[in-house]
Design brief:
The structure is a single chain. By secondary structure, this protein is α/β, with parallel strands linked by helices. It contains 4 helices and 5 strands, in the order βαβαβαββα. It has helices spanning 24-40, 62-72, 93-98, 122-131, and strands at 13-19, 51-59, 78-83, 105-109, 115-118. The protein has a 5-stranded mixed sheet. The protein is globular.
Amino acid sequence: GHVFKLSDLKGTIVLLDFWGSWCGPCIKESPELVKLYEEYGNRHFTDADGFTIVSVAIEKDKERWERAIERLGLTWPHQVIDPVSSFRFFDSPIANEYGVKEVPSKFLIDEKGYIVKVNPTFEEIRAFLEEKK
């Protein structure tokens, strides 16, 4: 319900996660995302104010998206819906801006706002966060 810009999170390490409530692989990896947020969401780092996840759902059905967030336990505050009006899911504003052609797609962004990894594994994300301690 609140508008924000990714640049508002400068100083924080961000995992930008593109997903869909209709996407099997996205649903399958959601427990790992929840675990990652629980492990690092309240931590402070040497050069960063913290870690957060920004989930961008590419959706046609807002209610289905909201039910999925609740069902999957996605508790981080930055949940964004990138609505599509056709069956061309990746022809949406935010997905186009990041060149997303499939979900799940992830971008690990450092505290300075630079993308440091595209589609990192959860092990790579944890290693990056551990280095920042």
